[in-house]
Amino acid sequence: MSIDVRNQTVLITGANRGIGKVILETAIEQGAEKVYAAVRNVDSVAGLVDKHGDKVVPIVIDLQLPQTIADAASVATDVTIVINNAGIARTNDLLSPQAFSDYEAEHKTNVLGLLHLAQAFAPVLKSNGGGALVQLNSVVSIKSFVDFATYSASKAASYSLTQALREKLALQQTSVVSVHPGPIKTEMAEAVGLADVAESPALVAEAIFAALRDDQFHVFPDSMAKQFEAAYAGFAKAFVEAELSEQA
């Protein structure tokens, strides 16, 4: 189903900085009627409210606190596009004791956060005609990187859930998009030492709204991501995006 962001009401998690902030700005530039800036601290989006006025509505969502997600869904009842951008990443030695607590935090945010968000907002999207759910995954959901092994594992799990959500939510006419960026210029990229190879977050934002218009499930927005796409596209079409029987 093709969805144009014009005149839509969008909710974006992690909208106060990095990719999320650019997605918010791009949504408004492309004609979104309203954007819920879903963040842990609403004061962090004060500048966006000052700039865009009542087009930006701050709302509290902490992906590690399911009640905040449920509360947001009870308020943002007019949402037609949900974009789950928020996430956390840790660098670690996979064989160190710290790897356990890092993975627990990453899994709670990146995987369980997605599931709570989907369960809370699926009924909202259905009541508003279907709409779309967009999940920011990563190239590390396809290929694990040793310095980000626990993060890679959490994103592989979120990608798996995204595939299942695509099939499940299609029953209510809700489109699902899985976005797989490589290194993008954000505070997260700087924190994990990827700033030198990172590309503009605008590539991600523009690719998301193009994918919604073109009814695409997979999105590979930047240079590194497109290398993955070239190698992965055949498998994705034949298995991930195909209608396969579980008994096949």
Automatic annotation (TrEMBL):
PROSITE patterns: ADH_SHORT. The keyword Coiled coil does not apply. One of its GO terms (molecular function) is 3-oxoacyl-[acyl-carrier-protein] reductase (NADPH) activity. Keywords: Oxidoreductase. Its EC number is 1.1.1.100. The keyword Oxidoreductase applies. SUPFAM superfamilies: NAD(P)-binding Rossmann-fold domains. Belongs to the short-chain dehydrogenases/reductases (SDR) family. This is 3-oxoacyl-[acyl-carrier-protein] reductase FabG. The lineage of its organism: Bacteria, Pseudomonadati, Planctomycetota, Planctomycetia, Pirellulales. The gene is fabG_11.
